[in-house]
Each structure stands twice: as structure tokens, then as C-alpha cells.
Amino acid sequence: MAHGPELPENRPTAELARMLDEIVAYLERGGGLGLKTRLTRREWHQLIDGCRVEGRMPRTLDEFRLWEL
Q1: What does the pLDDT profile of the chain (69 residues) look like in tens digits?
Q2: How far apart are CA 16 and CA 21, in angstroms?
Q3: Contact yes or no for 66/5 (Cβ under 8 A)
Q4: Residues 20, 67: contact at Cβ < 8 Å?
Q5: CB contact at 8 A, 64 and 16
Q6: Are 38 and 32 in contact (CB under 8 A)?
Q7: Following DSSP, what letter does each residue of 49-63 receive, concatenated?
Q8: Model pTM?
């Protein structure tokens, strides 16, 4: 919580948790959040665009883990 993580308020918690778990698992397997996922996982990038860590979009695996429930 020291990093001020913020999630979009207009999405159901279960949906956010599911997508964040998918993103964390993907990053743990060595995946990246570049153009390929922007085209194939648009819902992830829509979520990422609405998330904030220290006032900016999360970029690293550890930053996505801040929301693990």
C-alpha cells in the first residue's frame, strides 16, 4: 500500500482479480506487455490503462502483485 496502488472503480472486483491474476501468471512465465498483448489481450491493456502505482501505470511484475488478493 505504500506505493498507492489504485484500481478502476467501475469494474467488478471479481473481474479485476481474475484479469490481474492472468497478467501476473503471464509475466511470471516470462511474457511481456508489448504490442502482441495489446492486440491479443485488449482487456488487459484497458485495465492497465486504468490502474495506477505511484501515479502511473504499472510496469513490472512486482507492481502487478501489489493487488494480489
Answers
A1: 455 789 888 889 899 999 999 999 999 999 999 999 999 999 999 999 999 998 899 999 999 998 775
A2: 8
A3: yes
A4: yes
A5: no
A6: no
A7: HH-BBTTB---SHHH
A8: 0.88
